[in-house]
Amino acid sequence: MDVFVCAGCGTELTAPVSRVALPVHTHYGAWEELHPPLMEPATYAVDPLPTGPPWRLWEDVGEDVAAEQGVYAPVYAVSFGARNRIVIAPGDSRSMTLILEKCEGYCRGVDGRAGPNLACAGCGRPVATRVDDCGSWQTVWLEPAAVVRRSSGLPAGPPPGWNDLKRVPPVEADGSWSRRWEAALGVMLAHLVAATEARPVALPSGPVTELLGHAVSRCLSPGPEARSAGAAVGLAVGLAGPGISTARPRPEVLLVPRHPLTGAPWHPPGDEGAVVPLDSGVWAYLAHPDDETSPVPATGVVPQGVLRDDYPLPPHPWRPLLPHRDAFRHTLVRLPAVRGPGLSRFRAR
């Protein structure tokens, strides 16, 4: 396991942590809602893209400079913040104090708009940014130039692999759609638009269509002219990944999970076809929707593997699942494919 220390004085700034993939929903919370910590305890992730201030307007930056920052279509402002910022759960931070004059926020917390707001308790050097305002997942972002990664001397547990994908239910306890699912859907749609060049698609029957079909059809509709002409249904999309068989013939596009350690999308062995990555927890639910566990403890008289059916049904959302708009837009403009001719309607700010 690793610890991060102040680059100025060597003070340890974190508990021992192990690296995992950056969560898909990192930058996409629900407006005016308080969220739990983004990261699991004793983990950290790295964001390779520039994030946070300073910001520069698109008109002042230009297309070429924006592309160097990883933005390939017009946006209001381009981030020139640091690359490779390290995110941890607030509970894993150590020996840091708030810089009170930089603790600005929108509503019920701090949002990091003024830059680093946490200083090293040993030397006073700004080293990190605490974010916990409504609409944001609770995080502490370590500045890569202000910290140094060192071994903690403690052994790390087994690294997560394809067998460790945990299902994330699509509905919250209050009956609303999962915020993680909304963000994951937005990110997935952006990759699907890029992979298909915005052509219509045909989803597989079952949970994929039931949960994602409404949003996909709104985004990749064939249009009235194509429908009246009796055009083909669209490119075939299938669900594939570890532990489930890939449909034959192979669909043109596969929805696959991201690796929980690296974030890299799964690929069938020896297959170079198009894949669209999904949040691993969302993918696990779609791949195994029937792995249900009763919320009511069963007594010893119920045979193993038999589910009770006398518990109340959970609440259901009143509307179809829709993507997080910022997740879709922010992901799409960071894909070079957005410059293609088929995606022109998505490039307007």
Overview of the structural elements:
The protein folds into 2 domains: 2-151, no CATH class; 179-346, no CATH class. The protein is built from 7 helices and 15 strands. The protein has helices spanning 58-61, 63-68, 179-196, 207-219, 223-228, 280-287, 325-332; strands at residues 2-6, 18-19, 43-47, 55-57, 77-79, 85-88, 96-98, 118-120, 126-131, 139-142, 147-151, 201-202, 235-239, 253-257, 274-278. β9 (126-131) and β10 form a beta hairpin. The longest helix is centred in the middle third of the chain and has 18 residues, at 179-196. The chain is globular. 33% of the residues are buried.
Can you lay out the helices and strands and say which pair or pack?
Elements: E1 2-6, E2 18-19, E3 43-47, E4 55-57, H1 58-61, H2 63-68, E5 77-79, E6 85-88, E7 96-98, E8 118-120, E9 126-131, E10 139-142, E11 147-151, H3 179-196, E12 201-202, H4 207-219, H5 223-228, E13 235-239, E14 253-257, E15 274-278, H6 280-287, H7 325-332
Parallel strand pairs: 2-3, 12-13, 13-14, 14-15
Antiparallel strand pairs: 1-11, 3-6, 4-5, 6-10, 7-8, 8-9, 9-10
Helix pairs in contact: 3-7
Describe the structure concisely for a colleague:
With 349 residues, the chain is an alpha/beta fold. Helices cover 18% and strands 17% of the residues. The strands form four sheets. It has a seven-stranded mixed beta sheet with strand order 2-3-6-10-9-8-7, with no helix packed on it. A four-stranded parallel beta sheet has the order 12-13-14-15.
